[in-house]
Amino acid sequence: MDRVILYDMQQMQQPFVASGGKRALPGLTDWLTQRTFDGKVDVGGAVRQLPMKGPGVTLIISDFLQDSFVDFEQEQEAAGKILRFLEYRRQKTAFLHVLSGEELSPEHAEALVGTRNLIDLEEGSSLRLTLDAASIQVYGQALQAFLAKLGQACALRGAFYAVCSTETDIYQLIFQELRKLYDF
User: Fold this and answer.
1) In sequence order, what DSSP letters do the residues of the chain get, joined into one string?
2) Does the pLDDT at position 159 exceed 90?
């Protein structure tokens, strides 16, 4: 019997188990709408709590914006540890890297030029910045390096990696972008 087990990295002890095909969809939808996206989450720590009992597929959906990933020196090592652990547990792994359209396309962020308060919705913290075209360009370059390093870490361990925009239509994401998982 095929089944899907979903975990919220903030509540690893309360998974959602979906089986039964289409009949599981209403419960799955309810469970997903109850998720909150606030606070800090240790992706590596959450993965180590997964009670895997055999081979399977592990799909990690995250913005990967935690210190161990954002720190350029530690990024590949943080991803590598997770990927090695899941490989040891006989899991095929996929990282879905979710970012907003503004985060992914800073070249279209003319509205950000000037002094702005950036608010971290997950933690509730804010940062006052003065941005100009040059600083936005530096951000864009750092973002591309960040995405490339994470993609390289996944490729090195045979994991699937995709960058997903929150602005992408859900049907396009599922039926076009994520369809690439079948080739993986």
Assistant:
1) ---EEEEETTEEEEEEEE-SGGGGHHHHHHHHHT----S---HHHHHHT----SSEEEEEEE---SHHHHSTTTHHHHHHHHHHHHHHTTEEEEEEEEE-HHHH-GGG-GGG-EEEEEE-TTT--EEEEEE-HHHHHHHHHHHHHHHHHHHHHHHHTT-EEEEEETTS-HHHIIIIITTHHHH-
2) yes
Q: Looking at the predicted structure, is the pLDDT value of residue 1 above 50?
A: no
Q: In this structure, what token pair is assigned to residue 82?
A: 């997770």
Distance CA 181, CA 137 (A): 32
Q: Specify whether the CB–CB gap between 5 and 15 falls below 8 A.
A: yes
Residue 127: φ, ψ to 5°? -140, 130
Give the percent of the chain with pLDDT over 70.
89
pTM confidence score: 0.82
| 8 Å CB contact between 114 and 130 | yes
DSSP 35-80: ----S---HHHHHHT----SSEEEEEEE---SHHHHSTTTHHHHHH
What gap in Å lies between CA 116 and CA 136, rounded to an integer?
13
